[in-house]
Amino acid sequence: MPSIKLAAGLSLVLLCLLVAPVYSFMGEDPMQSVPWSTSTDSEYVTLKVEIFGEGYIIPWPGVRTVKRGTTINLQVVGVGVGYEFDHWEVNDEFYGYAPFKTLTLEGDAVVRAVFVETSMAEETGYLVVDLTFYDEPAMAPVGSVLLWELGLNETLTPVQVTQEQWHSQAVFKGVRVGKTYTVVVQLENGLRDTYMTSWTVYDKASYMHWGLISNLAYVAQQNATGF
């Protein structure tokens, strides 16, 4: 039985509920064509789901019969220790890097989630996720940061930049240079919510700065002044 760590800090139910916001905020990979492997006009098609490497996904691995034209959500919900999610394949063809995808079944399909060993990466480094409140620089953001593809969750650590300015940071080691990761922030102060974006690790020492706001009044003021 592989050692699996579910994406820490987010329950399985919450992971499922977050699919729609991720699509609307980040968008999916560009559309890929799928070579459908069916030779009949049957109302139903066969869907086979499998995993290469170690990880958890939805739908669960197995074989099932699905009505033709059904749209399914493909989602990574856990990552094996020492692994990271790399990409999806449909009928042996590349189907995107995003850990959230949709697929409309127009024929029989073999869906494969590919997880790779992080130790096999040619070049790895670390990523610093740095957060601050633009409207309240003296208040350090509180919460945690998750790198979805790695299944790693780190608590934000306050860092004093100046006497009246605080940031909060989370540091992730072992990220792959050139790979794009899904960054999920669970904010526990200010506008408490879950925020998502993507970030490409551009060097062995990569730094991502994300400026947030702490209250809606600031948004209204900015909209009113046009700045």
Give an overview in words.
This protein has 227 residues and is mainly β. The chain folds into 2 domains: 4-27 and 42-119, no CATH class; 124-225, Immunoglobulin-like (Sandwich). The protein is 11% helix and 51% strand. The protein is built from 3 helices and 17 strands. It has helices at residues 12-17, 19-26, 216-225; strands at 4-6, 44-52, 55-58, 62-67, 71-80, 83-90, 93-94, 100-104, 109-117, 124-133, 143-147, 152-155, 157-162, 165-176, 180-187, 194-200, 205-212. The strands form 4 sheets. A 5-stranded mixed sheet has the order 4-2-9-6-7, with no helix packed on it. Strands 1, 3, 5 and 8 form a 4-stranded antiparallel sheet that branches. The longest helix has 10 residues, at 216-225. It is elongated, with a radius of gyration of 20 Å. Mean pLDDT is 82; it is low at 1-28.
Keyphrases for this structure?
mainly beta, Immunoglobulin-like, 2 domains, four-stranded antiparallel β-sheet, 3 helices
Break the fold down into its secondary structure elements and pairings.
Blueprint: E1 4-6, H1 12-17, H2 19-26, E2 44-52, E3 55-58, E4 62-67, E5 71-80, E6 83-90, E7 93-94, E8 100-104, E9 109-117, E10 124-133, E11 143-147, E12 152-155, E13 157-162, E14 165-176, E15 180-187, E16 194-200, E17 205-212, H3 216-225
Parallel strand pairs: 2-9, 10-17
Antiparallel strand pairs: 1-5, 2-4, 3-5, 5-8, 6-7, 6-9, 10-14, 11-12, 11-15, 13-14, 15-16
